[in-house]
Structure formats: structure tokens, C-alpha cells
Amino acid sequence: MRVAEIIADFDTVLTQAYRPASASAYRADLHLWQEFLAEQGIDHIESVQAEHLRHFIRRERARGVAIRSLRRRFAALRALYRHLQRQHPQLPDPSRYLRLPKLEQHFPDWLTVDQAQQLLDGPTSSDGGPAQPATAQTHFAMTRDRAMMELLYSSALRVSELVAIDLDHLDLAGSWLRVFGKGGKERMVPVGQVALTALRTYLPARAAVAAAEVKALFLNQRGGRLSVRSVQRIVDGWGRDRLGQALHPHTLRHSVASHLLQSSGDLRAVQDFLGHAGIATTAIYTHLDHQHLAAVYDSAHPRAHRAPPRQNPKEDR
To answer: Which residues does the UniProt record annotate as the domain Core-binding (CB) (predicted)?
Structure first.
């Protein structure tokens, strides 16, 4: 069986069984693999051995491909061979002998409590400096951005969750917000008093620009739902104005999680607050908490003088 024909046949499975983005990525990965096999003079699937698959993965790694992308290439190959096994059980599956590359551990960026306060309390180029006559548009933008920033930090929202909020998701009297997270999973999160005050200031300005049928809480200047890209741009502008650094909305979410865990130590409650499916995802913030403790210890303890940890202990072996 020719490799090109098998991949073409598998394309139907990709289209039907996978989300469009995943199908497109797997399709690209398999065509890379097909090109690699052609370079090795391999045209038929029966000739493919486990060593060929290992060589492909090693070559991709040598080209600088990230571990996450390598794992996706691995998953595309496994999916293809599972499909082949269902059609041709007698065909060997060399992908069984591949070891999945381990993900590099990445710890999220986060702000200290002082930085978060500076971000939310300090002046920006848009609302600081000498008083100037405010137009209806600037008043709308200022109150919206303030409410948005306070709510991102108050309720640890993903940017996709923020832009999806409708007016009826917000309970001002009860200080609660209904959020729809990944996979449409619903959760209720509290809203702090500072964020509630900012929202109450924003809502009259919102009503002045919103069309009657628009349900979105956060609107653009034309009265439509605010986009993810617009939120990212606004948050980045606040970070540059107030902290002198680029800032992403997810950094605020990471910061809230870390601050709550430092104060409460209740990992399960933070998991529910963030809407994480598993506790392991939330547990990364315990490492951030330990990092913070270590930094404070090293800078403040009179007899600390600890040596910095080695980046790669294996290099010393």
C-alpha cells in the first residue's frame, strides 16, 4: 500500500472525526512525514519500521520543532496507524514502539500583589495626567476598560470567557457571575466589590451605545461585542502604561490564582474558582508559591546565602 494513498484515505477520517484545527494540523504533520519517507526512498507503508519513525521525530527536533509540536506529530502518526489497524489488522504498527517526548515544564507569568495593585490603582495615559474635557466616547472607553480590568483580576477570567459574558450572566445584587469556560462548562464565580463598583459605573455608559438586541456585557465603540484581540490590546496598553511591560490577559488569571493560593492554601477551592478540570493543572500554582517563598527567604533571611539551583543537573553527571 502506497503511503500517499493511505494518507489521502485517512483525510476523510480527519475531516469527520476531528475538529477543523486539529484535522488541519494532523494533515500537515502527516504530509511532512510522507515527504520524509520519500527522502528515505520509502513509498509503501509495509516498508516503514519503528526506526524510521524515530528518525523522523529526531530530525524534527533537530530542526528546532517544539516538544508540543513533536507530540502532535506523534499523535498524528498513532491516529493513522490505529486507522490502518482497523482496516488491516495484519499490518505491523511501528508507532507502538515510539516513546512520547516529554513536555518541557513551563511556569506561567504572574504579577506580585504589589504589581497587581499598581496596575489597577495607578494612572494610565488614558485616564491620568491633567484633566481634559471627556467626550461620550472617551468616557465609555474609560469606564469599560476599568470594569474589564477589575473583572479580569477579580474573577480570574480567561479572555474568551470575558468577551462571552452577557448582561444576564451578571448578578450585581448577589455579587456573582455565571461563566462558560472550555467546552461550554458552566461555573459561578464571585465578583469583588471594587469590580462591582466599576461595573455599575460602566453600565450606564454601555446603555448609551448598545443596540437593543445586543446582549454582550462588554462592547466596542460601535455597540457590538468586544473581541478577544481588542481585550488583549487594552490589557497590554495598561501593562505598558502602569508597569512598563507587556501584559497578557492570562497573566492576570495566573496572578489571581497564585495570590489566592498564597493567602488560603486551599488548592481545591482555587481549582473550582478557575474551572480547571483536574487538580494537577491548579497544582502548578503551588510551585509559584514555593518560588515566591524561596525568593523572599533568599533576599531577607540573614543566614540564607543559598546557592542558586542548577538549570540542568544532568550536565554535571
So the answer is: 1-85
Catalytic residue among 144, 250, 254, 259: 250
- Burial pattern 203-215, b for ≥16 Cβ within 10 A else e, equals bebbeebbeeeee
Three-state DSSP class for residue 180: strand
Residues of the chain with pLDDT under 70: 101-108, 122-134, 261-267, 269-270, 272, 275-317
Torsion (CA) 88, 94, 96, 97 in degrees, nearest 10: 160
The grid cell for 102 is: 516529554
285 is catalytic: yes
Full-model pTM: 0.56
| Annotated catalytic residue, options 31, 182, 200, 301 | 182
What are the chain's domains?
3-97 (1.10.150.130), 113-300 (1.10.443.10)
Residue 214 carries which side chain, given as an amino acid letter? V
Confidence at residue 286, expressed as pLDDT on a 0 to 100 scale: 53
253 labelled catalytic? yes
Nearest to 153 by CA among 63, 247, 246, 82: 247
Helix or strand or coil: residue 217?
coil
Is 158 known to be catalytic? yes
300 CB burial (10 A radius; 0-12, 13-18, 19+): exposed
